[in-house]
Structures are given as structure tokens and as C-alpha cells.
Amino acid sequence: MEFLQTPGAHTSGSSLAVFQHTLTENVFELGLARRSEADRLAQKAAASVADFKAKAVGPIQLRPASTVTPRVLIIASSTGGPKALLSLFENLSPSVTLPILIAQHIPPVFTGALAQNITRVSGRACAEGEDGELVRAGRVYVAPGDYHMVLEPDGNTVCIRLNQESPVNYCRPSADPLLVSAANIYGANVLGLVLTGMGKDGKGSCETITKAGGTIIAQDQDTSVIWGMPGAVAQAGLCSAVLPLDEIPGFLQKAVAE
What is the distance between the alpha carbons of residues 210 and 222, in angstroms, rounded to a whole number? Predict the structure, then answer.
């Protein structure tokens, strides 16, 4: 269900405080998810559970999408993210050729395998982002584990920069630095996607993107393992769409065609 990076000398920048926070959050959120699943399976409690969800989540206020065609897609994900990403890319139309950058909360040993699996199911060129690498159409870049990945102007092009600055929202890589850097360069041409995950990483930066005129969409609660990250942006009124996972590829295809 989740990967945890243990603290120690062999894991640069991983502190005991970060590990304690992450472990506690994981146990708590996974426990809630299990309890929620049990509630859904109990037929006699179905009505009360639905009523509880409606009161807990409240109505989602959607905002208009950007009127300009996206030039870059930024994806943020955490718990349940690897499986969701594979499903997304397996069903994503070849007509979606804009560069895609992913911030998945995952330790270093797994990011390379995630990139390989995305290539396997989609046929797209996908790899860990490298410092100084130019961002190109048709390619998918995964933030390496234990590194923040951001975008930086390079003349008339855009390049990737990696750093090991302090964790953001207890995460490294974090979605926030990547999304903010994209907003600073692409403005209204940013399309942000928040998939299943714990916590609120990405919420602040998604607000930055909407202020720049860009578009944010999120995975819905029923298809998320944990509706923390997507729920945070949805409930904040930052999304133009909140969709089941299997409807997101179609939305992306339509968005880049307009």
C-alpha cells in the first residue's frame, strides 16, 4: 500500500522526525481507508455511510478550465500512485504528446522501476529526470527518489533541475516545488493532475497554478486508495474536474486537442 524510507546514514537527508511523521500519517490514513471500505461493504449501513460522506466532504465547487491549450502536464501522486499511474498511461491516447512530469512519493530504489513500467504499458519514453536535461514533447519524466525536481528556463527551452533541499510537506520529491516552477514558466498553459495520495502535498502549488490561469484536475474519492491529496485540492475549489481514474485519460485527450 505504501513505501517508507527508513532514517539512517545511508539515506541522505532522511531524519527520524520525518520518518515518525510519515509512519504515523500512513497508519492513520490507511486505517481510515480500511474502515471506509468496510462501511461500504456493509449493506445495512449504506445509507448512513453515504450521508456521512456527504457531510464530511461537502459539495465540490468546480472552477472553469483554462481556455488555452496545455503545454505541459504535471502529475502529483502518493499512496496508491504507482498503480494509478500505470492505469492512466496504459489508457492514455498517443495523441497526448505534451511533456509529462511526475512527482510520486516513493524511495529512490523504486523510481527507476516505475519509469520502466510506464514505458512498458504505454510505449512512451519515460525515465527519471536528470539535472540539466531539456524538457521535450512526447517524453515522461519521473522525479528521482530523494530529490526535488523543478523546471528552469534555459534560453528558449526548459530544463530539469534536481536538488536535495529540505523536504516539503515531509516529502522529497514533493509536488509543490515542481508545480510552482511549472506555473512560473508556463502560466495558464499548465495542466496539473493530482492522483491518489496521503496528506496535502500539491494543494498550495495548485492554488498558484489556478492564479496563473492554469487548470487542475483530481482523481475522485471512490477510485482513490487515499483521498488526501486529491481531496485537499478538490475541497479547496481548485479543480476544474474531479474524475474517476478511468475517465482521466479521455479528459486529457480532449484538453490537449482544444
Answer: 25
Express the helix, strand and coil content of the chain in percent, nearest 5 each. 45, 20, 40
The three cell numbers locating residue 147: 530529490
Q: Are 221 and 194 in contact (CB under 8 A)?
A: no
Rounded Cα gap, residues 15 and 6, in angstroms: 8
pTM: 0.82
The active-site residue, picked from 146, 176, 201, 220, is 201
Q: Where are the alpha helices (DSSP H) in the chain?
A: 16-41, 46-57, 81-90, 108-122, 175-186, 203-211, 229-235, 248-257
- Residuewise pLDDT in 10s, the chain (258 residues): 677 766 765 555 557 777 777 787 778 777 766 666 556 555 545 555 555 554 455 688 999 999 999 999 999 999 999 999 999 999 999 999 999 999 999 888 889 999 999 999 999 999 999 999 999 999 999 999 999 999 999 999 999 999 999 999 989 999 999 999 999 999 999 999 999 999 999 999 999 999 999 999 999 999 999 999 999 999 999 999 999 999 999 999 999 986
- Which residue in 14, 66, 77, 105 is the catalytic one? 105
For 42, list phi and psi in degrees, rounded to 5: -90, 105
Angstrom distance (rounded) from CA 257 to CA 82: 26
| Annotation marks residue 181 as catalytic | no
Given the residues 14, 66, 78, 240, select the one marked as catalytic: 78
105 noted as active-site residue: yes
